[in-house]
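Hi team,

Below is the intake form for Lysosomal Pro-X carboxypeptidase from Phaseolus vulgaris. Please confirm the fields before the structure is written into the shared record.

FORM ID: S-0412
PROTEIN: Lysosomal Pro-X carboxypeptidase
ORGANISM: Phaseolus vulgaris
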Amino acid sequence: MKHHSLLFVLLTFLTATQSWTIPRMSPVPEWEASLHHDPVAVDAEEVKSFFFKQTLDHFNYRPESYTTFQQRYLINFKYWGGANSSAPIFAYLGAEAPIDNSPNTIGFLIDNAPSFNALLVYIEHRYYGKSVPFGSREEALKNASTIGYFNSAQALADYAAVLNHIKKTLHAQNSPVIVIGGSYGGMLASWFRLKYPHLAIGALASSAPILYFDNITPQNGYYSVVTRDYREASETCYKTIQQSWSEIRRVASQPNGLVTLSQIFNTCHSLNQVESLIDYLRLMYASAAQYNHPPKYPVNVICGGIDGASDGSDILSKIYAGVVALKGNTTCTINGPTNVSETTVGWRWQTCSEMVIPIGIEKDTMFEPNPFSLKRYVEGCKTTFGVSPRPHWVTTYYGAHNIKLVLGRFGSNIIFSNGLKDPYSIGGVLENISDNIVAIHTVNGSHCLDILRANESDPEWLVKQRKKEIKIMKRWITKYYADLHALKHKPNFHTK
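The structure came back. Fields below:
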């Protein structure tokens, strides 16, 4: 299958089966950056770009497994205390996007690097950005054989190889490493600590829904939290949204109904099917809830528009007022051109292979019921990539069932942080597993908010959450240094 054919099939699949797509898990949203804090740019001279000659396949010994590709990583040396002092390394594990903007957006690292004298490392996930095997994105995504090396286990092994290389190159074998990630990257951080405890002394896993696999978390969980967010913001807003779906379908069923809807919602192109509008609105509401960051709080913005519509407005006019409140009224936003980005393609592959998060919608939400259908999902993935998803593989390889019993016995030094306004928090670890695998959550927090840059306007509960995380990380490092010192003074101890 050629690259352009893959993109065409993927676009068709996404358009036809939006209800079964798994929401993006990026720490920052793709839409309306103006709704969130503008990151303070990191001086480009502080961040250096490097490439590591990475092995294509870490788990086989066939000749093709030894093929290599250039994997990108970034380093900020500004705050590092140096190898002689065994100063720590903070490693941000890139997820389903290029790594270019991570030094700016993941402000937690640079905010806290000075107090730790930490080296900051950002490692790009294979198949994203400039870390693409087979020489080009076209070849890498050519067919299921070339894209088959694109999975989380290979990514974790990549990170291990890069970190080993960095420590060796900088003569920093005794520098403790803490891995940090958000959302899918948060899952990677927690799994890295479990799979490679000799390389990372701890992990901060922000908004990591590691329990949203294999029906551990109810399928309805994500959209039940979205519904709760809107209901808590405004009962009238919640009811208006709840009632709007039947009204949209009623209007669509009338003669020229799609034309009428296109006019009411100022669509970029005339609607060909009512599902395009329904999918857009559902995903807009969900994204606003997932990224309901202060000080704007997008859920409140949408409900402010809906509740603030002029007297006598009908339901659909109120709904459109919510769209305008969030997106602005300067141009069309609905039914516009579809951007099939590398993240769109990459995340679709990942969720069609191992990252099967069964998100569905049942009757007790503000949305139309739309249960997750594994059969339909498998059919779509087969059509797109020629492979079937493995819905049980994540729990088989990494675990998740009976997590408190299992990890409480052998795991250590992981922080699972969540904001309960985040729909993905329903699949996160919300209770302490042990004394050193801890859950830190905030009632009003949202997706990956704690690892974004601190601002003077941050509410006190967010400031406290970050302080707790820093305190725990400092305790890990203090304990590591004490253990290192004790070992150095034992006979026949070698640090190399």
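SUMMARY LINE: The first helix runs from residue 3 to 16.

Thanks, M.
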